[in-house]
Amino acid sequence: MPVESAAPERARELRDNYDDILRQVDEAAARRTEGPQPRLVAVSKYKPASDILALYEHGVRHFGENYPQELEGKAKDLPSDIAWHFIGALQSNKAKLLAAIPNLFAVETLTSVKAANHLHNALSSAPSPRSAPLNVFLQVNTSGEEQKSGLPALSPSTPSGELVDLALHVVQKCPTLRLKGLMTIGSFEASTSGERNPDFERLKESREALVAALRERAGVDAVRALEADGGLELSMGMSNDFAEAIEQGSTNVRVGSSIFGARPPKA
Ligand SMILES: *Cc1c(COP(=O)(O)O)cnc(C)c1O
């Protein structure tokens, strides 16, 4: 289906919102001493393809979606050089659908060996093989809240666990996947306390512990290869906490409502 253009006022509103967030991203990045320029992912779930196209025409390429079918439809209708991020709950039976999207940039929500195998198998047998492995972020439940998905965080006192096992599995058994980093959704309280966010600190600590564990169990060369690829990223920060997340080391922020406006409540 061809995508209709957004009304001019809507297109202008989206551009202004995006530019405003991008400026805040740059300012937050300037307040820290090191690290790459963070990637701003525009989270477009529930929003029409015309909104995405308006931002695309403004130069935006990274968009995030939560629902596989919605992503599949938008990816078909919109330009093929969009870099899509899947950021929703990953069910194994949706791996095939995701693997068939050629311009899927990353799955940010991998939490199980089973889902990794489904993705790997689907990618291995895809009719048109991708030119590069699919980036995956492993989701970590840094807040410990029961309703959040994600694997338990690592720390110096808990240097092993499911997160290490899954990372090893991806690195050693899934050549169609590339371990790109860790992802978390901070707790709402932590993001509004105005202090350094403990959930973001836990994600950073998890990365350190994971790299140490991989060095030990996958070998120095495997870790060198990861580092040559830019090292493991941290995907953290949303509309209400992306600036703090960047100051705390985020390399990938996922911003929805501050760009597109409020979403309709879930049915
Ligand atoms: C919806 C969503 C976002 C964007 O949230 P906003 O608060 O609207 O910026 C980011 N990450 C994930 C995983 C999401 O589901």
From TrEMBL:
Residues found modified as N6-(pyridoxal phosphate)lysine: 45
**Cofactor(s), by name:** pyridoxal 5'-phosphate
One GO MF annotation is: pyridoxal phosphate binding
Q: Record's SUPFAM superfamilies?
A: PLP-binding barrel
* Family matches, as InterPro entries: Ala_racemase_N (IPR001608), PLP-binding_barrel (IPR029066), PyrdxlP_homeostasis (IPR011078)
What keywords were assigned to this record? Pyridoxal phosphate
Q: Which PROSITE patterns match?
A: UPF0001
- Please state every residue range assigned to the domain named Alanine racemase N-terminal: 30-264
Gene3D superfamilies linked to this entry: Alanine racemase
Q: Kindly indicate whether the keyword Cell division belongs to this entry.
A: no
> What CDD domains does the database record attribute to this sequence?
PLPDE_III_YBL036c_euk
Q: Which NCBIfam families match?
A: YggS family pyridoxal phosphate-dependent enzyme
The protein's job, in short, is:
Pyridoxal 5'-phosphate (PLP)-binding protein, which may be involved in intracellular homeostatic regulation of pyridoxal 5'-phosphate (PLP), the active form of vitamin B6.
Family assignment?
A: Belongs to the pyridoxal phosphate-binding protein YggS/PROSC family.
Spell out the protein name for this chain.
Pyridoxal phosphate homeostasis protein
Q: Which organism is it from?
A: Rhodotorula paludigena
